[in-house]
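Hi U.,

Before I forget, here's the chain from the pilot set. I'm dumping it here mostly so it's searchable later in email.
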Amino acid sequence: MEYNLDRLKEGMKDFSVTLTEEQCMQFMQYYEMLVEKNKVMNLTAITEFDEVIEKHFIDSVSLAKEYDLTKKCKILDMGTGAGFPGIPLKIAFPELDITLADSLNKRILFLQEVIDALQLKNIRAIHSRAEELAADKNHRESYDLCVSRAVANLSTLSEYCIPFVKVGGKFISYKSGECDEEVSAAKRAIAVLGGKLSDVKKFSIGESGRAFVIIDKVKPTPKQYPRKAGTPSKNPL
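Structure:
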């Protein structure tokens, strides 16, 4: 099928990314796999081509506005779901080292299919809950950057994500533009977990108001965090 890729190419140029033909093909193949798999499992409510381009692909890569993705760095995408933002970031910046983590194995199996089909290197998909993965010394405090587009409040997300970031690294949460109250409510949790709120950068993609909540990791996360499964969401710090 023929697709009009102008919106994708123009959107990427906003972040100083010029896509090669191969990268465009990878995005299209990912789109087709996503829509096909979505017929049998719930991956995304957004399936129309132009909407996926803007609300998933461009939105995912918009991280390049606030973080230098051209430098060598190790990234964890926690609660990756259908692979956002990790897979678009990997396509746009092939040199990144990315780990995708999700608690639902069906999603991980789909993401492994995508990784294989697109022949992506230096990226892996792990089936695990954050609480379990954070107990693994190979993952705890070993990432330069943790990102999440997961739909959870920032206090809960901070408990799931900050433990994976090394001191000196960052946790960046993708949020809607209306996040001030949520950010304010999360300040205590961020501090308890060894983080420090650095900035909230608001911008728009098309008609959608977006924000990056940028948290610096300033000291090690106490060993008791994250708490046992379910607790961070039921009883946020």
